[in-house]
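Below: protein 1.
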Amino acid sequence: MKFFKEAFNFYIDSSIHVALSCFALVRVTQQMFQISPDETLAYFGFFGTIVGYNFVKYDGLVRANKLQLRSSLRAIIFFSFFSFFAVGFYFFHLQRITQIIAVAFLVLTLLYTLPFFPNKKNARNWAGVKIYIVALCWVGVTLVLPIVDAGISITSDFYLKCVQRFILVFVLILIFEIIDLANDDPHLKTVPQQIGVKRTKFLGYVLLIIFCGLEISNSNTDFNINFQSSVLQLILIFVVANVIGLFLFFVNEKRSKYYTSFWVESVPIFWWILLLFIQ
């Protein structure tokens, strides 16, 4: 039993689960835009998420010698190095324009972690900025990169999906921020710190309504082309929004870390599985 618990903790702490969520969202994008499944880009997003998240979580602590190199942390570092080389391998198999955009989001991730400017904190500690940077990176990796790499023309549908994906990630992060409210530095000025938990939840509900509304407005233009597909997509969006809404409703500062690090982060995986069933 102890082995399974340690294995599960490694699965969570090494960012494999959140990377699987990124992988799932890339697949969702590919299916939405009828892109043939591209293993290269999907695995680039998977391993890139592991490297990025582990770098953000452990780099500062290790460099400041605030975290002893336990065996579990050594394993995470080793796995992160392996993932780094995997990212490099898949990176050089991407289209040139995709590589350029990927580097831009890499710089944004580094800005989030490292203090580039003298006597300045990193972007992660800039008041109120964290949630927007993280959401923007997720939109870039899970939506922009697959579209660009496939050579699909940019239309109004693309911009609508970008806004929709940003809202999705934004609301998921709100749930994280509510749980972390007791431990977050007050200077971070997260959404719950600024407006309180109740108003944060209300904001999340409003954004989920907009999330569904965007799908309705987009589906209206597609009904005459593919009625059945449009209806199924719309139903899926409502199901996903309701699942997130339930997580938002029941979240509080006393919830276990697994509430977000496993269950909430499973939402994109759940969405992808539902899509596979209706295809």
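Below: protein 2.
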Amino acid sequence: MMIAFAIYFLILGLVCGSFFNVVGLRVPAKQSLIHPPSHCTSCNTRLRKRELVPLFSYLFAKGRCRHCGVSVSPLYPIGEVVTGLLFMLMFVRFGASLELLTALLLASLSIIITVSDLKYMLIPNKILAAFVPLLLISRLLHHDQPLWHYLIGALLGGGMLLLVHLVSRGQMGLGDAKLFFVCGLAIGIPHILVAMLLACLAGTIIGVALQLLHLVKRKQPIPFGLFLALGTLAAYLYGDTLIEGYLNIIT
């Protein structure tokens, strides 16, 4: 039964991931989520139902539009697959519990803002504002820590990056600070501190690797929302283990 439910959440994630791609691509561009219906962005041909099956439509079409032959961005299937895997992981980790609601919301937010930040280097206020009440409700329904831990986590997360934004004179986007505020609301303190360290570590390693591969130039801005999402998810899932391991090393 556990395997059946895990597969269900994998499929659910694939379907939701397809929608999250739309949200992440259309909201920053101030486009409707409904109109126009899904279409090829090159030839504007409306896609048929068989062309909207998450992941498989991309694979069967070999990554190209069936009508004009233009390559389809791999961002679409990657977003769907990662969402599916995250949903399945969250179910395996938390099972059929109230905490699963927060886990799925956090995974959903991470995918949407990553798509948006990678495409436009923008984290829209509308997306963050939509998740704040949802995460507040999920935390009211279930919390492992006192509620003030999550409030402090939000203020600390947003405050840290707001300070960086001010000191760097805007080199760190204000959207990152707002995103980390929302992340802190979900994972609380001390996990938001772990998330910050992991995000900076991931950003440094990947940033240096991209420069060495000559994929980006020195001082070229790269979207940091992805790394904040990675750090937050890792801290949320494995923060206690990481903190315990660190304390064992220093004591």
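Residues 123-251 form one domain.
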